[in-house]
From TrEMBL, chains A, B:
Organism: Bradyrhizobium cajani
Protein name in the entry: Transcriptional regulator
Keyword Flavoprotein included in the entry's annotation: no
Domain spans labelled HTH hxlR-type: 19-111
Gene Ontology molecular function terms on file: DNA binding
Pfam families: HxlR (PF01638)
Domain of life: Bacteria
Keywords: DNA-binding, Transcription, Transcription regulation
Claim: DNA-binding is one of the keywords in the record: yes
InterPro entries reported for this sequence: HTH_HxlR, WH-like_DNA-bd_sf, WH_DNA-bd_sf
Length: 112, 112
DNA sequence: GCACAATGCTACATAATCTGTAGCACGACG
DNA sequence: CGTCGTGCTACAGATTATGTAGCATTGTGC
């Protein structure tokens, strides 16, 4: 259990600096965080569907990340079940989209 | 020491899917990876300077991430000492820049 | 040459985190 | 009722991070 269970930023390391970018960088720099956002990018997924999409990652971490991501307001759990991005989460995901093209070029340069 | 010291993609989980975005997401989704890229964004830093910038993180992890980031071709160690981004690394960092503005809006909405 | 400081980097024990498997409570269907 | 799927949790073992100390090397001044 972290130090606090307060509002947001319970133990988001970077938040100590007061710069929100640090908090965000820390939140996203946790295992499966980026991946979860990415997999949710084009539609809702159930917890088990998300697990499948995430290469059978442990439900333990997935639930932890999902909790943090929900607390941050990026992800929400629909009433009929199934996780999806909030409007804010979609914005964040859009920010990450150029990464896709970059990844392609990265591989090309690496293999060269 | 990890299992291999091979080219790239030694144990980058996502790379199993063959999609480079997964490898990238996994690499960046490790502790301090994003932060290192961010701190290097506007200039070179020595290993100890980077440590200071990264809130006194352990040199162990920093060296590990630095090694992975160098292997990926995002970071390089100058001959006179000091780490800096490669051209590819700067490209990647540029991709992340919109995150800064997003982080500001994120805080605004969270605090609201 | 020799102390001195700074560099990149590593060792090691402790603590935190992730993995993998199993299973819970709940609700919807039949 | 039985079975399925949902979100979610427990727990032991493996992995990774933390924190402190220190190494080898290089440059600088004396």
């Amino acid at each position: 259990m972290p130090k606090q269970t307060a509002s947001r930023s319970r133990s988001v390391r970077g938040s100590r600096t007061g710069r929100p970018i640090m908090a965000l960088l820390d939140l996203l720099g946790r295992r499966w965080s980026l991946r979860i956002l990415w997999e949710l990018r084009d539609g809702a997924l159930t917890s088990r569907g998300l697990r499948t999409a995430c290469d059978e990652a442990s439900p333990t971490v997935l639930q932890a990340r999902l909790g943090e991501l929900r607390e941050a307001g990026f992800v929400e759990l629909g009433d009929g079940g199934g996780y999806s991005l909030t409007a804010l989460g979609r914005e964040l995901c859009a920010t990450f989209m150029p990464l896709h093209r970059f990844a392609e070029r990265w591989r090309d340069k690496s293999d060269a």
